[in-house]
Design a protein that fits this description.
CATH superfamily of one domain: OmpA-like domain
Radius of gyration: 27 Å
Number of helices: 6
Shape: elongated
CATH architecture of one domain: 2-Layer Sandwich
Helix content: 25-40%
Structural class: alpha+beta
Strand order of the largest sheet: 3-6-4-5
């Protein structure tokens, strides 16, 4: 009796294996496409860069605006705010918010080697204009140094401190999000074809 049960189980397993192998060889009328299209919501968030890298950048964010500008070939210089909270007050110590922004910027700049970037350092007004300019210059250099360490060529980077002369406007959406003037902003410029 036990032998009969084992024999039945063995035959069932052999039959199941044969069917499985046969189904692997069968051609389907509905083959799965090699690259299934992404869900529209995912496609709005995940962006492919020309060098094959992908980046999460939701519509309406600074990251997405940067990517959209980079994808254009109009040659115009374009200023961007990184988010307005890059440094702790009165220092060149980066904030937690900054830790995700610069790696993303590095990815974008690596994907678009024909784009140069000027980093503008800013500072809150302290009442000492010289100190504000020195702090803003140190912040701009800090960002340039980090980008350079991540492989962005120094010939593509420049730093300038503007002190407290260019504060965020009081009605800026960034201010509503908690931004301060402890920040850096970017000016992106696409090199002319002859300069590449």
């Amino acid at each position: 009796m036990v032998r009969l049960i084992f024999l039945s189980l063995f035959l069932l397993l052999v039959a199941a294996g044969a069917l499985a192998l046969r189904s692997c060889d069968a051609r389907s009328d509905n083959p799965v496409p090699e690259e299934a299209p992404l869900n529209a919501a995912v496609a709005d968030v995940i962006v492919g860069l020309p060098n094959g890298a992908t980046l999460v950048a939701q519509k309406g964010t600074v990251g997405r605006q940067l990517i959209e500008w980079l994808a254009m070939n109009d040659g115009k210089a374009m200023p961007f705010e990184l988010g307005g909270k890059e440094f702790l007050p009165g220092s060149t110590n980066p904030t937690v918010e900054d830790s995700g922004r610069l790696p993303r910027l590095v990815m974008m700049l690596k994907a678009y080697p024909d784009v140069d970037v000027q980093i503008l350092g800013h500072a809150r007004a302290s009442g000492d204009e010289r100190a504000d300019i020195a702090l803003s210059e140190a912040r701009a250099r800090f960002v340039v140094d980090r980008l350079r360490k991540e492989g962005i060529g120094e010939d593509r980077l420049s730093a300038k401190g503007v002190g407290s002369s260019q504060p965020l406007p009081p009605d800026s959406p960034l201010r509503a999000g908690g931004a301060t003037d402890d920040r850096v902003s970017l000016v992106l410029v696409r090199r002319a074809a002859a300069d590449r």
